[in-house]
Amino acid sequence: MNALRKISLLLIALSLAAGSIVAQQVLRLEDALAIAAESSPNIKRVKLSLERSQQSLKAQLAAQKSNFSFNINPLSFSKDRSFDDYTNEWYSRNSLSSSGTFTVAQPIPLTDGMVSLNNRLNWQNTYSEINDKELSTFTNNVYLRYDQPLFTYNQTKMALTELELTMENSQMSFDMQLLSLERTVAQSFYSVYQRQMSLQISQEEYDNQKASFEIIKNKVEGGLSRLEELYQAELNLANSNSAVQNAEVALLNAKDQLKITLGMDLSEELTVLSSISVNPVPIDLDEAINYGLENRLEIRQREIDIENAEFSLIRTQALNEFRGNLSLQVGLFGDNQKFQHIYESPSDNEQVGLTLQIPIFDWGERKARIKAAEASIKTQELSLSDQRIDIVSNIREVHRNLQNLLNQIDIAEQSVRNSQLTYDLNFQRYSNGDLTGMDLSLFQKQLSEAKNGISNAQISYKLEILNMKIQTLYDWETRRSIVPEEYKK
Residue 192 carries which DSSP code? Predict the structure, then answer.
């Protein structure tokens, strides 16, 4: 592995040295995560959803404050012809008016009522043909009104609670997307790193094939080896060169995928810088399961789904229900032909109204809808139970994978050591003419596969540790919780 790290650092140094020709951006995993948090298309979409929830909640809170409005009718003219029963004559009537109403309305969230202060000012000029009179009058009506729903649920409080839950759900979705993004970025980042290592290994194999080709070429020219050995060496060299080209293409494709994940321009050049070293992280399975069940935001999201389903049941129960509305109004009304004398002889205006809605028969609609809503609640409760089972199952699976990957890393390290020793011994035999080029090619491939195998196993372990972090919302490497502060109890 020391040799691989040296090769990796050498490649990075060569990439940096080539920067004068093609500027490359060198990324560490931390840099990639920072870029993705700002530019990733998925993060942008979730941010917009979060902003939508924030603004909806802000609008609902603003709707609970006093609302000021002014409605104005600058000019209204009407001309009609009517029949007067008293005089038994048809007559014409003209009317010209202008009015405006100023209203201050204040919702009462505690009772779901509405209190409003209203002032309506009106000017009207009328002419009636029946008495040949024209009358111009100013009127003003100022009154205080209160409307209170009865025998039903509080719609204002429920709407606010639902928006608060939506906001909480959007915030959790955003935080979960950040964690998911960390995994996606890490996978794309390590994929590029893996392709870089694969290219280095392929290049190393190509260099070895070139060396063996030169050896057999000199032997054939000196009459020490058969010509078919040279043909085999040429074939091995061509295959090795093709492997290098395939590795280069795979690396470029992996880089493009990383750029898409990060939200970068595809024309930008980049290389990744990383040191893959695996230090086994001790993880207690029972402790991990407890963290998962206690911290996972999906559980709270399922609980929110249940609460929303219960709100839907409340609305359904209000369908065709017995309900009422109480209205109270007090005010002053004044009229006069002169504006300044409107309230010379005011009159009191009082109104009290009680309306009741009494359902009689709905053919079972309400009952059926209530059963459907109750079934929806039970469905959400099952989803919560399934979510808990999935969390436990996933944590158990990741824990087993981690144990297996540690074993695979040990096996891969031993395989690299043995493959390197085997290749060195057989290369010496090949140089002495005791081994064919085809046999040496098999040992070379075995060495390349072993080197790729240990790189793959180490990367898989790093990704699985990250997966356990996401599954439990606990960083097992630093031994600290990563639950956002707003969700801590």
Answer: H
pTM for this prediction? 0.74
Write the pLDDT tens digit of every residue in 140-157. Answer: 999 999 999 999 999 989
- The SS3 call for residue 443 is helix
Distance in angstroms (rounded) separating the CA atoms of residues 264 and 266? 6
- Is the distance from CB of 5 to CB of 252 less than 8 angstroms? no
Sequence-ordered list of residues with C-beta below 8 angstroms from that of 254, at least 6 positions apart, any chain: 188, 191, 192, 194, 195
DSSP assignments along 246-299, one per residue = HHHHHHHHHHHHHHHHHT--TT-EEEE------------HHHHHHHHHHH-HHH
- Of the pLDDT bands very low, low, confident and very high (cuts 50, 70, 90), residue 22 is very low
Q: What is the CATH number of the domain that holds 470?
A: 1.20.1600.10
165 and 289 share one domain = yes
Q: Do 87 and 202 fall within a single domain?
A: no
Regarding whether 168 and 92 lie in a shared domain, the answer is: no
Asked whether residue 313 is domain-assigned, the answer is no
∠ Cα 395 399 405 (to 5°)? 140
User: Could you report the per-residue pLDDT of 76-125, keeping only the tens digit for each?
Assistant: 988 888 877 777 778 788 889 999 999 999 999 999 999 999 999 999 99
pLDDT at 19 over 60: no
In the numeric block, which tokens belong to residue 223? 């009459």
- Between 158-162, 168-172, 441-445, the lowest mean confidence (pLDDT) is in 441-445
Shared domain for 279 and 302, answered yes or no, is: yes
Token pair, residue 337, equals 């032909």
Residues 43 and 168 in one domain: yes
Q: 205: burial class by Cβ within 10 Å (0-12, 13-18, 19+)? A: buried
Residue 465 has pLDDT above 70, yes or no: yes
The number of residues in the chain equals 489
Eight-class DSSP state of 184: H
Looking at the fold, whether 176 and 269 belong to one and the same domain comes out as yes
Q: Tokens 């699976």 label which residue?
A: 397
Q: Say if residue 353 is in the same domain as residue 380.
A: no
For residues 331 and 385, state if they share a domain. Answer: no
Residue 432: Cβ-neighbour burial (10 angstroms; 0-12, 13-18, 19+): exposed
In a domain, 337, yes or no: yes
Report whether pLDDT(471) > 80: yes
Residue 363 has pLDDT above 50, yes or no: yes
CA distance 458 to 465: 11
Structure tokens at 87: 């005089």
The total domain count for the chain is: 2
Residue numbers of the domain that contains 77: 67-108+113-149+325-358
> What pLDDT score does 105 carry?
94
Is 350 contained in some domain?
Answer: yes
